[in-house]
Write a structure and sequence with these properties.
- This protein is of the alpha+beta class.
- The protein has a domain of 149 residues.
- The strands form seven sheets. Strands 7-12-16 form a three-stranded antiparallel β-sheet. Strands 13-14-15 form a three-stranded antiparallel β-sheet, with no helix packed on it. Strands 1-2 form a two-stranded antiparallel ribbon.
- Strand 13 and strand 14 form a beta hairpin.
- The protein is elongated.
Length: 356
């Protein structure tokens, strides 16, 4: 055997190459189905956990607003009203607003002209051009004005929570030493000047809740130290600048808004949650939540307040259809309705969302 000829013992057969087999269509479909099932199981939990964190954040912020109202009361002797008209023109103040302002600032000078909306024009009789004297603040705007201070009435983008002047005769002045703000966590990026009916913006800002997908301010309603809620004057639940005593929704989705709720949440009402008249008179037996203080309500992640009524943690929101007109004024039985729009509301009396 030639020395150049390899020994048969050293020869190794070449390894055989087997073609790599890919996934079959059935296997791919099985994998995709498994992934889909896992996603379906995991995503709702992640969303629910994220929503729970956001709900807790809003509930915590509401507690902070409550503390701010407590601080305001310690300073001025009463909780902020949830409806008032402020006047720039000296001597133009109406009686209800005069009484409320004087109860907080006894030395307030009602005779001088002011520039409340910071447009450099003093003493305007109709600063916002809505055809009515003064600047009308609803509950959401009162919450910001009285906790944030006079700088929260300003052109869009320039509102600032800088408290009130320490001058007892002119607390709305923009200069001088300041008292407050009473809620120090206001985020200027969340101030909103609601576009009211007719496209009017009056410079009075509301405060958007902490849900990033909506632009709906906190609703604030005062009981005026237990004298009674005044939603006819104070509750702007649809953010058009006009208070509503009642709200309506299509609870059975038949195209008709037949469910009518009182704008204030009640604990009990022997008749039904809608008062029999169109004023703010509390009827015998009615008991509101926080009947001696105030209600703060976030519309929740859907941005809709829904239809308030009688609420309890056991029954949800109760609703009784109003009596039909004479000659057959039969009051229909009470129905318990867990309205979708209201069930995610976060309040200062429910300890979380109303649907919990």
């Amino acid at each position: 055997m030639s020395p150049l000829t390899p020994s048969p013992l050293t020869l190794k057969p070449a390894p055989q190459r087997h073609p790599r087999r890919g996934f079959s269509l059935v296997e791919l479909m099985v994998v995709i189905a498994i992934i889909g099932v896992l996603v379906a199981l995991i995503l709702p939990g992640l969303f629910s956990a994220g929503q729970g964190v956001r709900n807790a954040e809003v509930a915590t912020e509401i507690k902070g607003l409550e503390q701010g109202i407590t601080e305001f009361k310690l300073q001025y002797g009463q909780e902020p009203p949830s409806g008032i008209t402020l006047f720039e023109e000296g001597g133009a103040w109406d009686t209800p607003s005069t009484v409320m302002i004087r109860s907080m600032w006894p030395q307030f000078d009602f005779t001088i002209d002011r520039d409340l909306d910071q447009d450099t024009n003093f003493g305007e009789s109709d600063p916002d051009g809505d055809g009515a004297n003064g600047i009308r603040l609803t509950g959401d705007e009162c919450l910001v004005f009285f906790l944030g201070g006079s700088g929260t009435i300003a052109p869009a983008g320039s509102a600032v929570a800088n408290g009130f002047s320490s001058n007892p005769s002119d607390p709305f002045a923009s200069d001088g030493n300041r008292v407050g703000p009473f809620f120090t966590d206001f985020d200027p990026d969340r101030f909103i000047d609601i576009v009211e009916t007719g496209g009017i913006q009056d410079g009075a800002h509301s405060y958007n809740d902490a849900y990033p997908s909506t632009e709906v301010p906190y609703l604030y309603l005062s009981s005026y130290d237990g004298r009674g809620y005044r939603p006819q004057n104070d509750a702007d639940v649809d953010n058009d600048g006009t208070p509503q005593l009642f709200t309506s929704i299509d609870d059975d989705e038949n195209g008709t808004q037949e469910a009518i709720g009182y704008s204030v949440y009640m604990q009990k009402d022997p008749d039904y949650e809608r008062p029999s008249d169109l004023d703010n008179t509390r009827e015998s037996g009615e008991v509101a939540w926080k009947e001696n203080s105030f209600q703060i309500i976030s519309a929740g992640p859907d941005g809709i307040f829904g239809c308030p009524g009688i609420w309890s943690s056991e029954d949800g929101i109760s609703h009784r259809t109003p009596a039909p007109p004479a000659p057959d004024p039969v009051v229909l039985p009470k129905r318990v309705l867990n309205f979708r729009e209201a069930s995610d509301n976060v309040t200062n009396f429910s300890g979380g969302t109303l649907g919990n």
